[in-house]
Every structure is written in structure tokens, then in C-alpha cells.
Amino acid sequence: MSLKARIPARVRNRKARERREGRGTDPLDRFAVVLRTPARPGEALFARAPRRWQRMLPFTVVGIFVITLLPVTIAVLTNDYGANGGWAGALGVAQTVPLLLAVTRPMSAWGMVLCADVAGAVLLMGADGVGGQTWPWPPMVIVGYQVLMVCLGLRESVRTLVQVWLATGAAGVVLGFSEPSGVTNTVALQFVLSGAVLALTGALRQLGDARQRIAEQENISEVERARRTLLEERARIARELHDVVAHHMSVITVQADSAPYRLPGMAEPVREEFAAIAAGARESLGEMRRLLTVLRGDGTNGAEGAGGELFPQPGIGRIQQLVEATVRAGQPVELSLASAAAEEVPPAVDLSAYRIVQEALANVVRHAPGAPTRVSVTRSAPGGDVLVLVVNGPARDAVVEVESSGTGHGLVGMRERVRLTGGTLDTGPLPDGGFRVAARLPLNDAEKEPS
């Protein structure tokens, strides 16, 4: 068996979700997730990164570019292009300092930088040393502009990026009509580089958007699946408890109908009262049966709906048979069943105790096959609460985690049954790798619980 086959699907899905959310163990994976996570309007780039150094990284990188490009721009414009020192300083500041704004407001930074670059190209047309140099975009301008394109690509929509790219090309074409003689035209270089950077960073943003939508859909699906599981389990419990109630209503009907024959000499008003009780019970029983037909006719459990009314609901007295059947299936289970555990137990508690043991053993078979298991059903005191305990050791052939909100109904059903009786449920893993289910089912609350 391959290693992948031995890892349960739930664990693999959790690891994949951690990689998408940047919580994996590989630093490169975490940084890749941060890089492709799109920034929202008003947020700085990497604002939702899990680590502080990752959130500060865009500011640090842009700051390094500004500190480097500012003096280089002033020196190149002054020494190579022969520009006036004052104009060179003003252009250097106008073309580089707005890059600091690109981390949070890249569109505003782009507008200021493009205007400064165009103004610089116009001023350099009359510079003494422009001949033989690159124009209209000097090398420093091209480098700073690409930094700005990275910030834009990681933030803005595809439509905005296309507009920025076309505006960049249009500015270069317009300036090209006034190109000085003897210069190396960099319009095409700026246009191609800007398009490539915008395409790459825009693709990263689109990938981040797609992964975020997938993660949101997975979260919605998990919530809906948990909600559907809860509703299905509640419907199942309602079907079983209504069977119990219907049985008692049938007993009331028979007793009320037979009272005049069992108690001769009954006064007429008393006879009429018993007849009214029998009629009301019979009507309620009819409504109960119609309700059961609806609950069982939902298409989710046709087999149970077809023959469920033909069999009595199980209780504590049948836990012995349940354990024996589990042992025959190959699961080692030990049972400790108190002799008085089933005495004077309300139907809701009787049924809930059986179902809790049944669901717990099903979880053991499903998630820890071959693990030694101990089942205990006792009373806290003579006539006291019913205590149910199911403890299993670690699995022999696999290490898996017990589902708490997946597609299975195990723990969800246990919680609902315990809540129905007003009891308490304690579940959780053990230090040695096993699992524990402990339920306390009070008798008094169960007797008060409405059907």
C-alpha cells in the first residue's frame, strides 16, 4: 500500500487547505501563498500575511528602491544628460518618492510617477548631453516604473491593468513625435517590459482570487454539510421518539376504550369523559402517524420508512446483542453492563443510551479498526442517572482523526440525543492515541422532555 493511500482523505484535505491559507510547514509555500493573495482596496500589499516581516516586506523593498534610485537619478541627469542641478533634484524626487505610496495606493502613485516621467522627458529634450543617451525613459525611470507595475499588478483588476499599459504606450508614442536627434528610443522597451510585468503579476492576482473563491466555497460547503447532517440526525431522532410516543398513545386509547368494561357501574359523566379521552388519543395517534409518514417519506431512508413501524425501538437491554455483533465483525470489545441499568428508564433515555453506544462503536470500526474497546453502561446510584462510557485504544493499522463535523453522523447524533434528554456529553482523544465518549443521561429531565 502506498504512503498516500495510508493517509486518510480528511488529513490530506486539511494539509491542502493549510497550504492554500499559508499555514504549511515549508517557508517557500507560505511565502508563495502570501504573494498570490490579492490585496483589497485600502489595504497594503501583503496586509493579510500571517507574519509581521511578511507584512513589512513591500515597504522595505520599495524603500530600498527609492533610497537607491533617488541619488542615482539625480547624478545621471546631472552628469550624463547635462541637466540643471535644481531640475535634476526635483525630477529625481518626483520620479522616485511617489513609489512609497505604491504599496497602499498604487493608482495614485502611478499617476504622479507617469506625470513626472513625461515632464522629465520634455525637460531632457533641451538638455546639453541628451545626444547619445536613452530617451524618453532613462534607465532609472524604467526600473522605478517596473516596481510600480508590480504593485499595480498585485492590486488592480485586469481592466485597470490594460488601461495602464495602453496609457504607458500612448505617452511614449506622443513623446516620440518630438524625439531629439541622436538618442536611443526606449518607448518600445518600456512598453514591452511593462506589459510583461503586468501580465505576470496580474496572473498571480487572478490565481489568488480563484484560490480564495475556492476556499470560500469549501467553507460554505462544510457549513451546509454540517447543517444538513444535523437536520438529518434530528429527523432520525424525531422518527424514533415519535414511535415511542405513538406506542403510549395507543395504550391510552385502549385503556380509555376498555375502562367502562373493566370498571362496571361507572357513572354516565365518567363514561363520557373516558370516551372523550379515547377520541382525543385516537385523533392524536392519527396525526402522529401522518407525521411519521412525512418524516419517513423524505427519500433519505426508504428502507427504514418501509418497515420501521414493524419493529420496537432498541434500548439498553439490547446493548449486549450490539456488542456481540461488533465482536463477531472482528472488533475486540469488552462490555460492562450493570444489572439495574435498564430498570425504570424513560423511553428517551433507553433509546439514547443504545444509540450512543451504537454510534461510538461505529466510529471505532470506521476510524480505529482493531483497537481494543471498552463499553460501560451503569447508574450513578440506585435509580440515578444513566452513565455511558465507550473508550477505545489507538488503531493498529492507521492513525486517523475522528470526524466531528464531517459527513458522518456519529458525534453529531450523540450530541443531539444527549441534548434531548438534558444530559452531558464529553468526547475527546486520549494521550495514547485512543478516543473517549462519556455521556450522562439524567432521568428526571428526560421525563420532562416534550416529544
UniProtKB/TrEMBL annotation:
GO cellular component terms, semicolon-separated: membrane
List UniProt keywords, sorted A-Z: ATP-binding, Coiled coil, Kinase, Membrane, Nucleotide-binding, Phosphoprotein, Transferase, Transmembrane, Transmembrane helix, Two-component regulatory system
Q: Where is the Histidine kinase/HSP90-like ATPase domain?
A: 352-444
Q: Which reaction does it catalyse?
A: ATP + protein L-histidine = ADP + protein N-phospho-L-histidine
Gene Ontology molecular functions? ATP binding; phosphorelay sensor kinase activity; protein dimerization activity
Q: Where are the transmembrane segments?
A: 56-78, 84-103, 110-131, 137-154, 161-177, 183-204
Annotated Signal transduction histidine kinase subgroup 3 dimerisation and phosphoacceptor domain ranges read 233-297
Which residue spans adopt a coiled-coil conformation according to this UniProt entry?
Answer: 213-240
**Matching PANTHER family, A to Z?**
NITRATE/NITRITE SENSOR PROTEIN NARX-RELATED, NITRATE_NITRITE SENSOR PROTEIN NARQ
This protein is called what? histidine kinase
User: Which species does this protein come from?
Assistant: Streptomyces lavendulae subsp. lavendulae
